[in-house]
Amino acid sequence: MLHLSFIPKYLPLATLLTSSFLLPGKARAQFAFAPGHYKLATGAQGDADLKLVLAEDNRPGAMAGVRNGQERSFRLAQVAAFSVDGHSFARQDGFKLRAGFDAQFTDPVLLETVVVDGPIELFHYYYVAPMGPLKAHITLAVLRKKGTNNFFVYSPKHAPGLNAQQALSPLVAGLFPADPILQRQLVSNQVTRVQLPDLVRAYNKGVRLKP
């Protein structure tokens, strides 16, 4: 289902600048309680109403769950993976691209798995960034070569709260050596975050862009 949104004409400038990063309707679902399945670092697993809680102010990120009417919160270091409302998350230790409020904590992060069925993997990293009196919810695309722990940010526009030196498109382009055209498009920031999953899936299947 297509989710449409609009930006009111007189929103504050900071909100306008971050509008392309605000979470779409489909992504917002994971931040409200919905039926899901969890697996803890101890190996324990089960079903519950779950949601992802992002780091904010003095509170680190967490996974919250409700089962039998009881609500409980788990620090991200206690969680191995969970899924909710069609979104699947996996814990990543030592993630170096932390941003916004998340940057002040040392717990692992939970990355949403977007494309993991090939040599190049794509994830979404969610965080909250302070912008003066405002707080922006950011969705960031991060990629890596399968079997490695070196992530690279692809962000065609400035991502609030993220060090610009962590989002260098040539590094992302280097993950796609077999497709020079795709590399050029990535370096020049022509690929949107919405287009990226389909392009990664196609590359993993051997499809190459033509002039």
Give an account of the 3D structure.
This protein is an alpha+beta fold and 211 residues long. The chain is 15% helix and 35% strand. It contains 5 helices and 10 strands, in the order ααββββββββββααα. It has helices at residues 13-18, 25-28, 169-173, 180-187, 196-204; strands at residues 34-40, 45-53, 62-67, 70-75, 79-84, 87-92, 109-115, 120-131, 134-145, 152-154. A 10-stranded antiparallel beta sheet has the order 4-3-2-1-5-6-7-8-9-10. β2 (45-53) and β3 (62-67) form a beta hairpin. It is globular, with a radius of gyration of 18 Å. The model is unreliable at 1-20 and 22-27 (pLDDT under 50).
List keywords for this structure.
5 helices; 10 strands
User: Helices and strands, in N-to-C order?
Assistant: HHEEEEEEEEEEHHH
Number of helices: 5
Q: What portion of residues is helical?
A: 10-25%
| Structural category | alpha+beta
Number-wise, the strands total 10
Give the topology:
Blueprint (H helix, E strand, L loop, with lengths): L12 H6 L6 H4 L5 E7 L4 E9 L8 E6 L2 E6 L3 E6 L2 E6 L16 E7 L4 E12 L2 E12 L6 E3 L14 H5 L6 H8 L8 H9 L7
